[in-house]
Amino acid sequence: MDHSFPGHGHGPTNAAGASHGSLRSYVIGFGLSVILTVAAFWVVMDHVLPPSSVIPTIFALAIVQIGVHLFFFLHLNFSSEQRWNVTAFAFAIIVVFIVILGSLWIIHNMTERMIPVQPMPSLQQQP
Predict the structure, then answer these.
(1) Could you give the CA distance from residue 19 to residue 11 in angstroms, rounded to a whole number?
(2) Within a domain: residue 66?
C-alpha cells in the first residue's frame, strides 16, 4: 500500500512544482554570502572608502545579500510557479516600508511640534 502524497516524494520538486535546489546552488549561494559579508567587514575595518560612502555601500551590499538569499536559498524567482510567493513577498516589503516610513514621519512631526525645553529655575532655599 502506497501512503505517499503527491509532491512529498524524494524528487527535486515540491507540491507546487518548484525546485528545491541542488548542492551546487547552495554552495554558490553560500560562497556569495560569505564574499558579501567579508566585503562589508573589509569596507568598515580597513577604511577603504571615504566615511560618507561607507553606510550606502553597506546598505547596497545588504540588499545584494538579501537577493542572494532569496534566490539561492529560498528559491524565489519570477517563474510562473513562484508568482504568488513573489507577490506575497512584494506585499510584505511594501507593508514594511509603509510602517518604517510612517514611523519616521510621525517621529519627525512630533519632534518639530514639541515645546522647546526651558531651563528650570534653580530652587534656592531662602534664609
Answers:
(1) 9
(2) yes
